[in-house]
Amino acid sequence: MEELIVKVEKLSHRYSAQWAVRDLDFEIYRNGIYGLLGSNGAGKSTTMNIMCGVLKQTEGNIYIKGINIRENPVEAKRHIGFLPQKPPLHMELTVREYLSFCAKLRDIPAKEVTRSVNEVMERCSLAHFSNRLTRNLSGGYQQRVGIAQAIIHKPDLVVLDEPTNGLDPNQIFEIRHLIKEIAHERTVVLSTHILSEVQATCKYIRMIEQGRVVFSGTIDEFDNYIVPNSLMVSLRGMPPADELLTIPGVIEVEELGGPKYRLRFNDGHDVSKHVVEISVARNWELTEIYTEKGSMDAVFAELSKK
Ligand SMILES: Nc1ncnc2c1ncn2[C@@H]1O[C@H](COP(=O)(O)OP(=O)(O)OP(=O)(O)O)[C@@H](O)[C@H]1O
């Protein structure tokens, strides 16, 4: 049985009159990358801030490794590393000075601070910039410093709020690589409103919209959320569309040029068996048949409406 790292129970939060998060329930298990996906204002940062103990919820509970973060924040926070949307960097400190300061904040014993800082700088490829002022680092390297402060105390749970926001494509690639490495030995939760981000990094997705969970599952399940009512086929015999319409269940035929056709059918009718049988019987020379998947964008648009 996998270890339960985070348990979110009936979580709701209200800023003055408006509910930002409503009745969230989910669980996160050890290791892997969990994406919290949602459009702007969906409630991702609110959820993450509560999960990391920097915002007190209006209702509900969050347990980190079984510890209620509201009742026992100091103990729970030992297991959490957090990179907020706006990284908590000190621009006037060098990388080493800043990370040493973070190590002390995290109660790392004085005689172990240097070793911990060296280790985390190595891990985040920051060693050669150890004496550089943070303000003089590129955006990608500043983000590495932000991630380094989140893992310096070796927490089981690392929470990253939009970790690649504002970075250029090369920096995004490198930060994703670093996040994947971190996830080999820790549980990572990251938020994003960018579909390709979860596609490239995450194993599991929770999508929230208007403060509520609208999808929870693996990337494949997300991808297959919309089961399309169409089949793509290639028939070298190039039969006329009228003939294809005689296949039981097929309601529309689109000729896509050459041997390619799109066959539409009604909900719940899988016509592929008939297509194969009839193609063989009438010698249509079937060379390709597959179901078109709903694109991530189509799933996102569909779920955003829920
Ligand atoms: N401090 C605040 N006071 C009042 N309302 C707030 C506050 N912070 C967030 N909200 C509102 O709560 C809702 C959820 O915001 P939140 O920042 O959690 O969303 P998000 O999914 O992280 O969005 P983004 O990607 O834009 O950061 C939004 O409607 C937002 O305007």
TrEMBL record:
<dbReference type="InterPro" id="IPR027417">
    <property type="entry name" value="P-loop_NTPase"/>
</dbReference>
<keyword id="KW-0813">Transport</keyword>
<protein>
    <submittedName>
        <fullName>ABC-2 type transport system ATP-binding protein</fullName>
    </submittedName>
</protein>
<feature type="domain" description="ABC transporter">
    <location>
        <begin position="6"/>
        <end position="235"/>
    </location>
</feature>
<dbReference type="InterPro" id="IPR003593">
    <property type="entry name" value="AAA+_ATPase"/>
</dbReference>
<comment type="similarity">
    <text>Belongs to the ABC transporter superfamily.</text>
</comment>
<dbReference type="GO" id="GO:0016887">
    <property type="term" value="F:ATP hydrolysis activity"/>
</dbReference>
<keyword id="KW-0067">ATP-binding</keyword>
<dbReference type="Pfam" id="PF00005">
    <property type="entry name" value="ABC_tran"/>
</dbReference>
<keyword id="KW-0547">Nucleotide-binding</keyword>
<dbReference type="GO" id="GO:0005524">
    <property type="term" value="F:ATP binding"/>
</dbReference>
<dbReference type="InterPro" id="IPR003439">
    <property type="entry name" value="ABC_transporter-like_ATP-bd"/>
</dbReference>
